[in-house]
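Let us begin with a simple case.
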Amino acid sequence: MVSTSNNIALSDKSFLYSPHPPEPAPEAPDVTEDSPLPEASAPHQPLALRDLAERARAYAEASSSLNTRRAYAADLKHFNGWCRREGLDASRPDPQVIGLYITACASGARSVGGRPNAVSTIERRLSALARVFAERGTPLDRSDRHIASVLAGIRNSHAAPPRQKEALLPEDLIAMLGCCDPGGLRGLRDRAMLLIGFAGGLRRSEITGLDLGRDQTEEGRGWVEILEGGLLLRLRGKTGWREVEIGRGSASSTCPVTALETWLKFSRIGSGPLFRRVTGKGREVGPMRLNDREVARLVKRLASAAGLRGDLPEAERPALFAGHSLRAGLASSAEVDERHVQKQLGHASAEMTRRYQRRRDRFRVNLTKAAGL
């Protein structure tokens, strides 16, 4: 049986930057019988190099989001486990092994848990493997026929239209706000999160990554500034920083600015993470930032409490809603020029924005009539 290497770790960048990098070999001096002995070299300074290595690892970590690193780490663990069960070597980027692995994932082989993976999941697993092998200096050739032809066949056989989450329309959001505890800190926090997430068209990580001010935490993804006309959010994304403007609402009960001001007043947060855990039976605000998964849980819980999609069995409803439902809700509801929605969501193309618009008029431009038919 071929030994399996389980030392591939995406979260640990030690294979990229060792704290003791090898020193270049010195050139051999021309030594003759009359040459003096060479002087001793200067002492090695490992502390300075170790500090640089730590910084390099931190920069490498910052090259991708936390959610991406989590997904890739899970994918690596999945691949390593399959190789171990099949007696294959996981340390080398063998295209034949990778081709067999994605076949197992697509067919739902017992060695991968017995359930077929979606095409998007298989493509993500391939991306994770390609990245880690490239960082180890042994690139994976995804164009090799053992991978490319198998992946093309998987796409042709199993690809399906993406399953989009339901958009939370304004009437849905108002019903959910009515299910928040009006007299508790947790209810005040949840109202502010929902309204800011909806009005800003934010991702769940952008909601929980907000700080009250600039440079207050190392892991923050942006901060908020309360102005007379509304909120100004500065967010750090995949392609750099962007600004999101959230205006005041027409009623105090649905105004995101009022909801945030109320949360800050009663939570007594002066700096640091904006949205935190509420402890002590709902009477105390802790120092820890909320995990972004709490946004999805909040949306699912309140959508169920508000009775959304009551035409479906109760067991099926939670799967319809998630954090992206807030983002899709703004894109589907805002009756403004599409360019403004695209800017708010931070999309590079209008086509991406249209994927979020669940009830737009798809036939506003009728090419059939325009052609004279």
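The second case is a distinct protein. As before, the sequence precedes its structure tokens.
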Amino acid sequence: MTKPSPQPSPPSRIRIGSAPDSWGVWFPDDPRQVPWQRFLDEVSGAGYTWIELGPYGYLPTDPAVLMEETARRGLRVSAGTVFTGLHHGPDVWDRTWAHVAENAALAQAVGAGHLVVIPSFWRDDRTGEVLEEPVLTAGQWQDLTRLTERLGREVRERYGLRIVVHPHADTHIDGEESVARFLDATDPDAVALCLDTGHYAYAGGDSVKLIETYGERIGYLHLKQVDPEVLAGVAAEGVPFGPAVARGVMCEPPSGVPALEPVLAAASALGVDLFAIVEQDMYPCEPDVPYPIALRTRSFLRSCGV
């Protein structure tokens, strides 16, 4: 009796990309950052086909120019990124929308389907100056959730993009408690989550558990790892996020946490199309550092089946 032939595994529905962040880019213009042309050349050379826009103004903001520059390198855009402070209430809506609209318009024009929304920092990410209380009041939570829902609906209606909210170190949405509270209080039809594995681990969260618990809310992934030894020192000293990155708190996979293989397996088990964008925070870094890391990281992710 012959044994049935093993069935081939279905192709992965996870689309891998990278971002300017993995090249040390945090600002539209900074002499310590690589020129945008070099970023595009190297991200393509490392084997990626998807990118994010990064800070608005780093890549060309003329859609025709950007489409030409990405297409000739075999690249496509998955998302734009915005920072918001919607917990401050309706008074900040008009200013927020102006910022969101220019980013969303560019993302739409170059074929992206998502807009990554990052809450504003409660302390300055360079100096550590405390800008506001690290814990929101009940009223601020209500403003945050209601206005984020409004943002999600208006971005979808006007630009056809899905917003994905990104928990981030030194913001009011970071670890398990605040992420669960945010998801439980928002409409799944309006708001999805961008799970950044590094930032979630930075705040003590378990990415696999989050995917298994809130799988239907996961709309996007950022792949990142934390060096646990550096993180322990950062936490003990109360170091803000920017200086923590300069210390190397975000590290090259697979040397940190969380392990990405089980995260990718849990995400694949959802059975949906997902972008998984590599983001290794490295600002500032020497210009020759990112490309070899990008090559190794892409090779590692292929070994994970994506």
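Strands lie at 14-18, 50-52, 76-84, 114-119, 162-165, 192-196, 218-223, 225-226, 250-251, 274-278. The chain has eleven helices and ten strands.
Keep these points in mind for the review questions at the end of the chapter.
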